[in-house]
């Protein structure tokens, strides 16, 4: 099943015979660490699909979208996942295949933080990023800040 929070993305399955129920009113604060990306520049990043899966399965199981406080920290090869279509085209001769998913996740409240260190190392300017991306000093710094704020790290 795809959706409902990110229609078209994040397949999940109903688990009707689970032994552990979801607690009512829990706020899920999680940060996803995204560092890698497939050599297939036309593929979706599996880490971003995992974020959609996490969001969809909880919303489908009666967790309010307001109780989903999710973030993604991108570094390494995953920085290209938040390039604007224009920047992606100029580098790889195609639109960014991840940008629609990034937009849907962002519209559902997911925040995207990009390592400034990885950007500089990879020669990526802030002006090349999609509007959903926020630049941090480094992935290590952002992961520390978010965990200090109570986010669970999902590596």
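^ structure tokens above, recovered residues below v
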């Amino acid at each position: 099943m795809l959706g409902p929070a990110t229609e078209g993305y994040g397949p999940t399955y109903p688990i009707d015979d689970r032994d552990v129920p979801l607690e009512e009113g829990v706020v899920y604060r999680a940060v996803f660490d995204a560092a890698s990306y497939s050599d297939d520049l036309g593929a979706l990043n599996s880490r971003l699909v995992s974020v959609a899966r996490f969001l969809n399965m909880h919303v489908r199981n009666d967790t309010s979208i307001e109780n989903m406080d999710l973030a993604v920290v991108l570094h390494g090869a995953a920085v290209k996942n938040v390039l604007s279509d224009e920047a992606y085209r100029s580098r790889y001769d195609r639109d960014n295949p991840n940008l629609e998913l990034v937009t849907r996740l962002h519209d559902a409240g997911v925040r995207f933080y990009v390592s400034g260190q990885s950007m500089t190392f990879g020669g990526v300017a802030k002006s090349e990023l999609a509007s959903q991306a926020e630049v941090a000093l480094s992935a290590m710094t952002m992961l520390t800040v978010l965990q200090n704020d109570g986010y669970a790290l999902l590596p």
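The chain has a mean pLDDT of 96.
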